[in-house]
User: What shape does this take?
Amino acid sequence: MSNDDPMNLAAAHDWGYAGKRVVVTGAASGMGRAAAEILVHLGATVVGIDRQAIEVEGVAETHTVDLADEASVSAVAAAITGELHGLFNCAGIPGTADPRTILAINFCGLRHLTEALLPQLTPGSAICNIGSTASVNWIYHVDSLLEVLHEPSYAAALDMLEGKLADLGYPYDVSKEAVNLYTAWRSIGLNEVGVRINCINPGGTFTPASRDFTKAVKSKEFGSEMLEHWPKLMGRMAKPHEQAWPMVFLNSPFASFVNGATFCVDAGLTSGLVSQQHHPMIAAGMFWAPAQKASS
Ligand SMILES: NC(=O)c1ccc[n+]([C@@H]2O[C@H](COP(=O)([O-])OP(=O)(O)OC[C@H]3O[C@@H](n4cnc5c(N)ncnc54)[C@H](O)[C@@H]3O)[C@@H](O)[C@H]2O)c1
Assistant: This one.
């Protein structure tokens, strides 16, 4: 990698994307924008969707959508016609928004769009979602979150998820836990039709949304203490393309046996937590949720 090539594009060949048609949500900014730029470079026909204007050179088609609005998601899915070979679900918002909007955009909108586009994804296609290191507790909430996954309606699932917040924790974390579990749960059925689904869980990444992500962490119990110790964890924040490249890999033919995986892209943050190598305040900030507090 050099200063002239900050995204390491020169080393990349087509990665199996030449002539493939892929959808990227959140393509206007941050990780989604980086993914769209890389995919254009790799020869893919990129369909970008976002609520903001998408200004990525070479994107073949753009659509406006509000993932918080079921009708808008249905309309954009209907407007994207023809065969698809990949879906990159990058759009999302930080925990500074109101809880219902967070759950709607980060989980319900993502799932509704994915299910609506599935019939167009040809065998060999793949889907990559974005969770978060904040969803580290998802494995403890499987029973409760499965009830939500078994509810196919956007509106009813949103009501259910909102009703569970008091038990499960912070809205952003819960929205991303649902994304992690959706990835794991859906991977079995999709395997039968030749479509893979995976998820990256990014650590702190420098994007236009970073300030709001930091603000949201600060407002959590032990959040400020966790942020104090944060620089020791990763040394630095990730750059958007450092999240986009793993997604590009996961949706490529080179990851053909990877399915249902939650892939941590966090410089070891989650591994350090699980193996109890991080400062206890970081563990407290990451693991401490209202439900655990109540039962402790
Ligand atoms: N930045 C981080 O530190 C970090 C860490 C972990 C996970 N994430 C997740 O990564 C993903 C990308 O975040 P980012 O940091 O690149 O943020 P970003 O704000 O730069 O990009 C997010 C994109 O999603 C779009 N979007 C938001 N709400 C939408 C809606 N209702 N309908 C359609 N599009 C909408 C935005 O317009 C924006 O283009 C998100 O899902 C976020 O939760 C971010």
Notes: The first strand starts at residue 21 and ends at 25. Residues 204 and 237 are 5 Å apart (CA to CA). Strands lie at 21-25, 45-50, 61-64, 84-89, 121-130, 196-202, 262-265. The chain has a mean pLDDT of 91.
